[in-house]
Amino acid sequence: MSLFWRIFGLNAVVLGTATGLLLWAPVTVSVPVLLTEAVILVGGLAVMLVANAALLRWGLTPLGRLTRLMATVDLLRPGQRLPVPGAGGGGEVTELVRTFNAMLDRLEHERATSSARVLLAQEAERRRIAQELHDEVGQGMTAILLVLKRAADDAPEPLRGELHQAQEITRASLDEVRRLVRRLRPGVLDDLGLVSALTSLTQDFATHTGLRVVRRFATDLPVLDPETELVLYRVAQESLTNAARHADAARIEVALRRSGEAVTLEITDDGRGIEALCEGAGIRGMRERALLAGAALDLTSTPGTGTRVRLTVPASRKQP
Known about the structure:
The protein is of the alpha+beta class. It has helices at about 5-25, 35-60, 60-70, 90-155, 160-185, 185-190, 195-210, 225-245, 280-290, and strands spanning about 210-215, 250-260, 260-270, 295-300, 305-315. The protein has a five-stranded mixed β-sheet, covered by helices on one side. A hairpin with a 2-residue loop joins β2 and β3. It is elongated and about 125 Å long. About 20% of the residues are buried. The mean pLDDT is about 80.
């Protein structure tokens, strides 16, 4: 039944019932109308309007669900769909819901594809910048250190002390450049694997922030493809950065374990948490990376008890 005939039928039921009551009810209308007759007519009209409104609300319920989903749908949270109405849902309504669900399928696929291209381009740019920092800036600062050392060896006091101070400043800057290179391009991830990369990341994080980091890495993890390992690494990196900047935490736990045919990464802190989870660019970026790996990202935060980030990715074998 089409939506037009559905609404027409509902109105016909209400009007037919009202007509039947007028035909068989012992009610007459005088001229001029008496007060009691006017009260009965107005009351009947009110009942008829209420019944009509209730029936229309019931008949248009699928459209209401569709409107609410359209207002809240988020392509970074895939899988949001409307149930297709049954035989009593109306032909147009059923077709509209099916079309909307199909549109979400296409949009999610296109969003995942475009996000993959963007993220891969970002990683390529990170590698290029890291390589330039290592080759150009790193080697240049190393040369400066050698020149300063030769000059300090031949310089008299107090110039020698100033040159030594310049050496220390240059050496600290070189260490910072190397740290930036490791953040931009986790070479240990390519060379030694995910567990070693996360171990190095958490050690470096604890050294620079002073926070206590507890690692719980399982030993029976399945083999993951490089893109999935990179997604896990970047989500852990962003979660640790957010905890250091916003959580005011003293202890952070990083866990990596096998969950059936999937791998779960969980980062939990004991910080202050947040009352309303506000998703900024960092969290949105994590959701986009989760889409790239076909993963599920869940963020839980309770005021006063900390925040938990959980990423579950499907296990997949590396291509031979």
